[in-house]
Design a protein that fits this description.
single chain; about 325 residues; alpha+beta; Alpha-D-Glucose-1,6-Bisphosphate, Chain A, domain 4; 2 domains; eight-stranded antiparallel β-sheet; 9 helices; globular; ASHA1/2-like_C; Activator of Hsp90 ATPase homologue 1/2-like C-terminal domain-containing protein; START-like_dom_sf
Length: about 325
């Protein structure tokens, strides 16, 4: 168990937890910025977490919920106040609905996470600042310290599992809820170059093609909130054309973009794609949380081989685009 000490200061209204790990700082940092990893230990052992959003940059936001043994859910959020990559980040931490709406009836806290090297590996010092002695007492009575110890007891197993989160793995999908799925892959390239590859037509036409044998005759990207994009593909014979269109809802270049997506010519509510690019060891973690109109639509789309098509595209991106930029 990595927790070295827990110190509560009722005068300063803080609780400081120190934990030591036999891994480099970069490995520990990656575990906290990668939603696939942090959700394996952020919740207590009996309340595993699911992260619907995890934007580790100033102004970014995390939305998560923890699911209990009886299926009950408890939501939370982080608002990132500052980020010093590889060294520290500061968040406003609070309670929320499972969808991420802050609960104004519950207290929020300021938390600072500091990552440092030690002779044996790395150390994480987490300091929580409470607004009042009453809130400090309330949260301790709710089991905050015990929950944190339980959560952190799971980190060692995640840190030891290098293979599941390493660069070089194929694109993977994870169902997050009835209508949501996360598709993730580490792309061997910088965040800036991967962002450009998602937004510059001359680059998009070279890699965003799915399986071999397709071309992109229409490529009209959008970069500003409110703009509309349109992309169309056809096979090598100029047949079987299909495409998608949508609108940019949020944009924080080069780290995050939220867009709608609808198949051209098809009726129905569009899906929403929340793309986040996060620098990690080995490249850029490209994570897309897709929200579909229904579970049926989600399963239908996944059944088309979408994830395999995305892997073909990402592999082509590394091979034919990022090596030359």
């Amino acid at each position: 168990m990595p927790v070295t000490s827990v110190e509560k200061d009722t005068e300063a209204l803080t609780m400081t937890i120190v934990a030591d790990f036999p891994v480099p700082v970069s490995r520990l940092w990656d575990a906290y910025v990668d939603p696939r990893q942090i959700e394996k230990f952020w919740g207590p052992e009996t309340y595993p977490a699911t992260f619907l959003r995890h934007d580790v940059f100033p102004g970014g936001r995390s939305i998560y919920f923890m699911t209990g043994p009886e299926g009950d859910r408890s939501g939370g959020y982080w608002e990132f106040l500052s980020v010093d990559p590889g060294k520290s980040f500061e968040v406003r931490d609070g309670f929320a609905s499972p969808e991420g709406e802050p609960n104004p009836e519950m207290p929020s806290m300021r938390m600072i996470f500091v990552f440092s090297e030690t002779p044996e590996g790395s150390r994480l010092t987490t300091t929580t600042y409470f607004n009042s002695a009453e809130e400090l007492e309330q949260l301790l009575e709710m089991g905050m310290e015990e929950g944190t110890r339980s959560a952190m007891s799971q980190i060692d197993a995640v840190l030891a599992d290098l293979a599941s989160f390493a660069a070089g793995r194929d694109t993977e999908s994870q169902i997050l809820g009835d209508t949501q799925v996360r598709v993730s892959r580490i792309v061997r390239g910088s965040v800036e170059d991967v962002w450009r590859a998602h937004h510059e037509p001359e680059l998009m036409r070279r890699w965003m093609l799915g399986p071999d044998g397709w071309t992109m005759p229409v490529c009209e990207p959008a970069t500003e909130v409110g703009e509309v994009y349109r992309t169309e593909w056809e096979d090598a014979n100029g047949e079987n054309r299909f495409g998608f269109t949508g609108e940019v809802l949020e944009s924080a270049p080069p780290l995050r973009e939220v867009t709608t997506e609808a198949m051209i010519g098809m009726e129905g509510e569009p899906s929403t794609n929340d793309l986040t690019l996060t620098p990690v060891t080995g490249g850029t973690l490209a994570s897309v949380v897709i929200t579909y109109p229904s579970a049926e639509v989600r399963d239908t789309v996944l059944g088309t081989g979408m994830v395999d098509g995305m892997e073909s595209s990402y592999s082509r991106l590394e091979r034919e685009v990022l090596q030359s930029v």
